[in-house]
Every structure is written in C-alpha cells, then in structure tokens.
Structure prediction request, 313 residues.
Amino acid sequence: MAYLDNIRTFVRVYELGSMSAAGRDMRISAAVASARIGQLEAHLGVRLFQRTTRSLSPTEQGRSFYEGAREVLDKVDEAEARVSEITETPRGTIHVAAPLGVGRRLIAPQLPGFAQAYPKIDLRLRLSDRRIDLAAEAIDLRFFLGHPADSDLTIRPIASCARVLCAAPDYVARRGAPRDGAALVSDNHACLNLRFPGATEFRWTLQTPEGPRPYPVSGRLECDDGDVLTAWALDGAGIAMKPVFEVAEHLAAGRLVALCHETPPLPVQMACLYTHRRLQDPKIRIFMDHVCGRVASAVAQAEAQAGSQAAPD
Prediction:
C-alpha cells in the first residue's frame, strides 16, 4: 500500500502542479507528499520532477511515468468499484466541480446528507466559474450551466433554469426600468457582466416575438464571480442577468426587481458532466442519483419563491 500511496501522491502532484496543492487534496502535509515523491524516485532510480524554490515541473521521465501511473490507478479504482458493487458498500473518494453560485446554493447543501448516508465515501468539492477539464484535473464529474464544450463527455440533464434581468429599486429610480433589450442598448444601461478567461458570451441573448436575439449590452463593471455581480446589483450599480434560483430571496423580498419583461432571458440548462467510464463506478451513480433530483427540486422551489417577480407580464 505504501508504494501505491506514493504513486497516488505522484499523480496528484503532477496534476495539481505543486506539493502543497497535492497535500491539501490528499489531506497530508507538503512534507509528506515530498517524502513520498522522494521514495518513488529512489525506487525508480530517476528524477520525476525538477524542483526550484519557485516552481516544480515534471521531467521527461516524469511525464512518461505519469501515463502508466494514471492507468494503474484507474485499474485499481475500477477493481475497487467492482468489489464495492458486490459487497454493496461503496467506498473511495469523489472529486466534484461546480460553478460558484451553483455549488454554494445547490450542490454543497446536499453533500453532508450524502456523506452521512455513505460513510465510506469521501467528497472533494471544487468551486470555480472557470471551465474545468475533467481529465486534466482528475475530476470525476462537474455540474454546469449552459452548453459544455466537452463533446466527448456524457451529460445528465438536471433542470431548465429560468433567468431574469434584475436591478435594485434604487437603480430603477435613477435610470428607469427598461422594458426590452432594445431599451437596454439605446438607453445605455449599466449591465453587470460575468467574464472569465475563455468566456465567449459578450452579448445578452433575450427572447423576442421573432425568436432569440443577442443584444450588445455595455457596462463598466465585470467579474468572474457571479455572487459579486449580485452584490453589485443589490448596491444599485447596474443590471445583472441571473438564474432565478440565485436571486430568488432578493426578488421575493423586493431587494431586486425584474426588468425587460417583454424580452426575458433564455433559460439555461443545468446538467452534470462526466466520462462514460466514471458511470461504471457505483459510487458515482449513487452520488448523481442522490444529488441531481434534490438539486432539481431546489431549483423549482427557488423559482416558486421568486414567483411573479421574475415572471413576464
């Protein structure tokens, strides 16, 4: 098991790019991670990483060893999964990724209950609004809003999430309430944009009687964290396009008001993305079955809470 632990540590260091990051991921210290890499290098008789005080990078031997090590760990995981299925005792670690807003409001609340029901399964939740590569970052599954670029992965739909253009009453009092996308542009409304490296949507696509239409909105404030946009909207800084479930409480309480009822935003698909191979693991199937239905119910409840505030006239 010590040798297998050394291989697992090497793989996580390789994938995460540092001893400290791998140590945090595996719940060991950076010193232990470094010692395991040293033991593995001594066993193999080669240097797996080039180390400096500021960086760590794999050597040619390290890159070659990673491919085989990853295959070994995949085979071990598959073997453990088969045993788990036979014994009906799923075990192991599940690495989950989700966007910030989705993760905080919908995914994270489901994990303690799952952990209590399945005490042999550890969960690692990573929240980020940037695109995450499942294979490169060793993520088992990720939740997302929109349309993924990973065409070779499998998608499990969860819910169609209504979206709303909203602003604080203070902003509406100062700038007026635009009824449609044309007014957003012609009146030069301050639109709060979600932007992150690799983002491709620079316009807001709204529903019109003629079908979906993109509007080139403008604004001086943008961020890669959706919750920051909500905070800015609450402060009266501008108009945000948000999934209703993220702002349902604010809409219901009147802290935000829905705008552009004549051209509302298109709904956005929430789904779970995973490789076909991971679905063969019983703990992954159990996790998705546990979480996806509860998330769909939470979205429906939030949209009902927002009620007529987010509905078109």
